[in-house]
């Protein structure tokens, strides 16, 4: 994991606060595992620095952090730890999840790609359904695909149906749209999940956890 990486996400609590996480891995514990120093800033007009160590290979890191934070009368948010767990899992794998973003709107494409890269995903982009299908025809493989619905040349549902017809059954395909009929169109085409726009970071978090679990179960 690169030094001084900064991750910004939104935690889901009663105040919908933003949390910025800064992770440093610059020490080793007595058994050789890395200790991650974490700084969190709750952005509510003022910054509140929080610092505590997290043991990479300890199953008790969350409870340890809670105890440390509680001693300072500070809250610990679950979504923060899910992100950290995912980052640590990706670091221990030979290859991070391979993600494909299929989106014709440039801004949406940039935002989703940036969110995935925060999770260390190897991200590829396609501007329409045909480009996505061509990537599979060329022999590219992906662990997860985020596909928009209405695009020029080939729509998202059309692309999903053709990708499944090519035999790509293990890849997790997520249909994404702001349209009310998006779910029916994507699910009938063969998508695994439908997510309405705008996507929340917590949804991406959950989907990537499922992908990691599936990857670990494969021979």
Walkthrough of the structure:
Keywords: Phosphoprotein. One of its GO terms (biological process) is phosphorelay signal transduction system. InterPro entries: CheY-like_superfamily (IPR011006), Sig_transdc_resp-reg_receiver (IPR001789), ST_Response_Regulator (IPR052048). This is Response regulatory domain-containing protein. Pfam families: Response_reg. The protein is an alpha/beta fold and 219 residues long. It has two domains: 87 residues, no CATH class; 120 residues, Response regulator (Rossmann fold, 3-Layer(aba) Sandwich). Helix content is 37%, strand content 26%. The protein contains seven helices and nine strands. The chain has a five-stranded parallel sheet with strand order 6-5-7-8-9, with helices on both faces. A four-stranded antiparallel sheet has the order 1-2-3-4, with helices on one face. Strand 2 and strand 3 form a beta hairpin. The N terminus is likely disordered.
